[in-house]
Design goal:
Its main location: cytoplasm. Residues 355-387, 718-728, 904-913 have a biased composition (Basic and acidic residues). InterPro entries: Cnn_1N, PACT_domain. Residues 160-233 form the Centrosomin N-terminal motif domain. By secondary structure, the protein is mainly α. Among the domains are: 1-6 and 52-118 and 130-190, no CATH class; 665-763 and 803-869 and 898-980, no CATH class. The protein has ten helices and no strands. Helix 3 packs antiparallel against helix 4 and helix 9 packs antiparallel against helix 10 (1052-1103). The radius of gyration is 72 Å and the shape is rod-shaped.
């Protein structure tokens, strides 16, 4: 029923009948708000009771009942409710501007409008009056305004469509709630039997068993978590040890890099010395080639002189033949033709020999020109090779610098990768820590929730059991009372039947209410059981999350192990690359050596090819001359055979002439003539025999002379071999000089090695002193320092042993150099003695040549005597052959003309022969002059070698003095290096101080950031949970959230926190400024050291 306020009372039905005294002008409220109106919209906090447990649960809007019109009605109603709940009352019409209050208690101006929905009886501006038949139960004079909510509990006759729809929606919701309550009550009534109690007990038992299993699982999880924490702590310890090992390795790598740098410099110096020695060897090979060419020229000149001697012998033979022809002209006219032919042949042979001599001279000139061209080509090749060598050296230096830069970049990249991996390891460790902390926190929260849920569940179960017992006892008592009443009613009669029925009905209603309440409680218990199941599901989720976290931890551990393996692999790859680079350097050196050897072999091959060609030409010329000599010998034999045949022909002609004379004369005369001719023939035969014997003696003497000449030639060849042996000895002396230079270079290398050893010893001593000085400082790692000291002591002992070995090696080399110098002096003395012997042998050979010339002249005199005897014999034979001369005059005249021609030719040949003799003598003089020049050159070379020996002795003394001076300088440098090392150790201490401050600062930042992150995550979690709860409440109320964004107003607390943070950062920056200053000093010193090392490298390059 809607509340209707009372209206002014009327005593009569018409106003006109009222008197003036009966009028009442008292103020009456046009509308009186019902009591408890605002309590309808207040939040019912704490309204839930054991008998009304569903008071706080609101019915949520159904999705199928939500329409756009309902949304607009809901928003308007929500706005109105918010205004009422917040206490912001709407402004009444009387308090609005422009409102005029009348004296009569009439409605507001808004109700007097024609367009107002509350307009009822105001027609034509008349004042509405009550009906005469009005009473206290009649219609009020002024209806309330809907805007103020006065008609919320009305019947809805004058509501708008939206309000009507809202009202219908509210009624539908209430009906739905009632239907739902009825359904739950019926279901609870069905569950009131013993079966439900048994089921509840079973569920209770199952819940308790799950509780026990959950507690065991939680204990197991805590044990696993503790084990994981222990393993994580061991991993952290291993990581710290690994980081310390890495630091120590980096320190050892620094020392190793310094040693590698020193070794590299020593190898570069050794390579430069080797290159210079190779250049010197190439120059010496060029000098050897020049010596070989000069020897070939000398051989060619010797061959030319030998051929000149052969020509002289052939000319001598021709002269002998001519003399023989001249001696045989008077007696044997028939032999003139043959002699003429022989002369022609001899002339041809002489011409051929002259042509051969000319060709030999031309070939000698061409050979000399070719040798000179070859020498020029060789010099050009040497220059080209030197240019190529310089270009190759520059290219190799560029390649070495490029490779060194690549190695540096690769090492920097590997260091960067190692640092990144270490950073990733740190990140993973932090993530593991955060994940562990988060999981530990979540586990504690879950355990706390489980404990609270278990406590609540136990309390609820106990309370429900107690309620069930009380309800059962109450129900039994009520049933007993009802039975008693029924029995009493039956006993009292029919008058009380109705009363009993009414009481039974009331009891039934009470039972229904009790069952409803119990159903509600059971539903609440079921909801709690559902929440407990949900919590159990959450607990399962947390277990799964814990398992996932454990799996993630194991995965992180595997990733850490894999990263460690990757770091090891990267280090192995770095070491493998270093070994590959060393192998590449070694292969490059081997390639350079091979190329140099190939170039040297090519040059030697070219020189050997030239020598082979020259030898082939010499052998061909020797074979040609041997063939010519054989041909001349054969011609000589032919001439001898022809002379014997001519003698036989002369005998035959003489016989024919005698026969012809015997035919003319008489038989007596013929007989006397025959006897006489026989005697003459016998005498001529005996003369011929003597001539033949004389000729045979001459040939034997000539053969003896030829044998003597061959002996002389063989002795000359032996002397030439002796000269070549002397040349070899000179080459051996040069080789010894080269070995001395090599020894000198070895001494310099040993000296450099001694310098490096002393430097390293001084550095190690300085490091030991620094380490001993730092061993007493606080914060240093004494164990590491002691290990380093022991290592440095071992290294110092090794270096001292190496230094002693190097000193022994230097002394041995000096002794070897002195022995070599003594051997060179002995060789010089032996060379002088051998030179004297060779000169004596040359003088003996010249005496032998003079003796052979005297024997030759004596033999020529004997031959001339024999020829004169032959001519006398022939003149005697001409007296017996006067008759035959008459018959042969014509032939004689012709022969005389021919003889004249032959004489003229012979004179020409004599002149040519004299010219050849003069040329041969001049060639011999030139050859002798060349030999003397060679001897002088050899003496000059010996003097140069002696001067070089003296220079080497002086240089060895200067080297010893320099070594002593260098030892003094090394001591000074060692002192300077110790001071420098102490300064460097101080710088390292500052650097360590800076790094420690930086690490502590980074750790503080990391801890602060971790704490801030955890705090922010907790705040975000709290905010998200609060927002979720607020959204749940709002959604349960059926109110959609406002999507407008409100700017956050700055607060004083944020400003104060900003000021505190600024002050704290300023203090931290002031504390960090000291360490930054130390860092800047270290950077400046490092740059200065780098510039100094760069200047030193530049100076070394200039020195190269």
């Amino acid at each position: 029923m809607a509340y209707v306020p009372g209206t002014p009372q009327t005593d009569a039905g018409d106003v006109t009948r009222m008197g003036a005294t009966g009028l009442s002008f008292s103020m009456e409220d046009s509308f009186q708000a019902p009591a408890g109106r605002d309590s309808l919209f207040k939040p019912k906090g704490g309204a839930r009771t054991p008998r009304n447990p569903l008071a706080t649960i609101r019915n949520v809007n159904a999705k199928n009942e939500f329409t756009p019109m309902l949304k607009s009605a809901t928003t308007n109603r929500t706005r109105q409710m918010n205004g009422l709940l917040k206490g912001n009352m709407t402004t009444p019409a009387a308090l609005k501007p422009g409102f005029n209050m009348s004296n009569t208690p009439l409605p507001e101006a808004s109700t007097m409008d024609m367009h107002s929905s509350s307009f009822a009886e105001s027609v034509d501006g008349r004042t509405p009056v009550p009906d005469p038949n009005s009473s206290a139960m009649s219609t009020p004079m002024a209806l309330p305004r809907r805007a103020e909510g006065e008609m919320d509990n009305g019947n809805g006759n004058v509501l708008t469509l939206r309000e009507q729809e809202a009202r219908l929606e509210q009624i539908d919701k209430e009906n739905f709630g009632l239907k739902l309550k009825i359904h739950f009550l019926e279901e609870n009534l069905q569950k009131m039997g013993p079966e439900f109690n048994v089921r509840a007990l079973q569920e209770n038992i199952s819940l308790k068993s799950e509780k026990v299993t959950m507690s065991r699982d939680i204990k197991q999880y805590t044990k696993d978590l503790k084990a994981a924490e222990h393993e994580l702590e061991t991993y952290r310890q291993q990581l710290r040890e690994y980081a310390e090992k890495v630091k120590r390795r980096h320190a050892d790598e620094g020392m190793r890099e310094e040693m590698d740098e020193l070794r590299r410099l020593a190898e570069e110096r050794a390579g430069e010395v080797e290159r210079l020695e190779e250049k010197l060897a190439e120059a010496r090979s060029v000098e050897d080639e020049l010596d070989k060419v000069s020897a070939e020229l000398e051989n060619a000149q010797a061959e030319v002189s030998r051929r000149d001697q052969l020509l002289d012998e052939q000319e001598d033979k021709v002269e002998e033949l001519e003399k023989r022809l001249e001696s045989s002209q008077g007696s044997q006219s028939s032999e003139l033709e043959e002699k003429e032919r022989q002369l022609k042949q001899q002339a041809d042979t002489i011409a051929e020999l002259e042509e051969q001599l000319r060709s030999l001279r031309e070939s000698q000139d061409t050979n000399v020109a070719d040798k000179e061209r070859q020498l020029e080509k060789q010099s050009e090749k040497i220059e080209d090779l030197e240019d190529q060598l310089r270009s190759v050296e520059n290219a190799k230096d560029a390649e070495i610098e490029a490779l060194q830069s690549k190695i540096d970049t690769a090492a920097d990249g590997k260091d960067q990768e190692i640092r990144e991996l270490e950073q990733q390891l740190d990140d993973f460790e932090r993530e593991l820590e955060t994940a562990e902390n988060q999981k530990r926190h979540e586990l504690s929260v879950v355990e706390e929730r489980l404990r609270s849920m278990e406590r609540e569940k136990d309390a609820d179960i106990k309370e429900l059991q107690r309620r069930m017992q009380t309800v059962q006892t109450d129900k039994e008592a009520e049933l007993e009372a009802i039975r008693e009443r029924l029995e009493l009613a039956e006993s009292q009669g029919d008058n009380q039947v109705q009363l009993a029925q009414q009481s039974a009905h009331d009891a039934r209603q009470k039972v229904v209410e009790i069952t409803r309440e119990k159903g509600v409680e059971i539903e609440l218990l079921q909801s709690r059981v559902d929440t407990a199941e949900a919590k159990a599901d959450e607990l399962d989720d947390y277990r799964r999350q814990l398992q996932d976290a454990m799996q993630q931890i194991t995965r992180f551990q595997r990733e850490v192990a894999s990263y460690e393996q990757q770091v090891q692999q990267l280090r192995q790859t770095i070491s493998q690359k270093d070994r590959d680079l060393i192998g590449m350097d070694r292969l490059r050196c081997e390639r350079d050596d091979a190329t140099q050897e190939m170039t040297g072999l090519r040059s030697t091959l070219t020189s050997k090819d030239a020598q082979v060609e020259a030898l082939n030409r010499a052998t061909r010329e020797r074979d040609a001359l041997a063939r010519e000599l054989d041909g001349l010998q054969r011609e000589r034999d032919n001439l001898v055979a022809k002379m014997t045949s001519k003698d036989e022909q002369v005998d035959a002609l003489r016989k024919g002439n005698n026969d012809r004379d015997t035919l003319v004369s008489t038989l007596r005369q013929e007989r006397d003539n025959i006897e006489r001719e026989m005697r003459t023939l016998r005498s001529t035969m005996s003369g011929k025999d003597t001539q033949i014997e004389a000729l045979q003696r001459v040939t034997r003497e000539r053969d003896a002379l030829s044998r003597d000449l061959t002996n002389l030639q063989s002795s000359l060849q032996t002397r030439e071999r002796d000269m070549s042996n002397l040349q070899k000895k000179v080459d051996a002396q040069e080789q010894t000089l080269h070995e001395l230079k090599q020894l000198k270079s070895d001494l310099s290398d040993r000296k450099r090695e001694l310098d490096t050893a002393r430097r390293t010893i001084s550095e190690r001593d300085a490091e030991l002193d620094a380490l001993r000085s730092h061993a007493d400082e606080p914060g240093t790692q004494l164990d590491v320092m002691q290990d380093l000291v022991r290592k440095r002591d071992d290294e110092l002992e090794d270096l001292r042993d190496e230094l002693n070995a190097q000193r022994g090696e230097v002394e041995r080399l000096q002794q070897l150099a002195e022995e070599r110098l003594e051997a060179l002096e002995d060789l010089r003395d032996t060379a002088r003695r051998e030179k004297q012997d060779v000169e004596d042998e040359l003088e003996a050979l010249l005496e032998q040549v003079d003796e052979t010339n005297e024997e030759k002249s004596s033999l020529e005199e004997k031959i001339s005597l024999l020829e004169s005897m032959i001519r006398e014999k022939e003149s005697q034979s001409t007296a017996f052959q006067t008759e035959t001369r008459a018959m042969q005059r014509e032939q004689k005249a012709a022969l005389e003309t021919k003889i004249k021609d032959l004489e003229s030719r012979m004179r020409e040949k004599d002149s040519q022969h004299r010219q050849l003799q003069t040329e041969a003598k001049s060639a011999q003089r030139d050859q002798q002059f060349a030999l003397e020049k060679q001897l002088r050159d050899l003496e000059g070379l010996l003097r140069e070698k002696e001067s070089q020996l003296r220079l080497l002795q002086a240089s060895s003394k200067s080297i010893q003095h320099k070594a002593h001076q260098d030892a003094i300088d090394l001591d000074e440098q060692a002192e300077a290096l110790t001071k420098r090392h102490i300064k460097e150790i101080n710088g390292l201490a500052k650097q360590i101080q800076y790094l420690r401050a930086r690490c502590s600062r980074a750790e503080g930042f990391r801890e602060a950031l971790g704490y801030q992150k955890r705090f922010f995550l907790m705040q975000i979690q709290v905010y998200s949970e609060c927002n979720q709860q607020d959204l749940n409440l709002i959604s349960q109320m059926g109110i959609t959230p406002d999507i407008t964004i409100h700017e956050r107003r700055p607060k004083l607390k944020s400003a104060a926190l900003a000021v505190i943070a600024a002050i704290r950062m300023q203090k931290l920056s002031e504390g960090w400024a000291v360490n930054r200053k130390i860092h800047d000093q270290l950077k400046q010193k490092l740059e200065a050291m780098r510039r100094q090392s760069g200047r030193n490298k530049g100076g070394l390059r200039i020195a190269r």
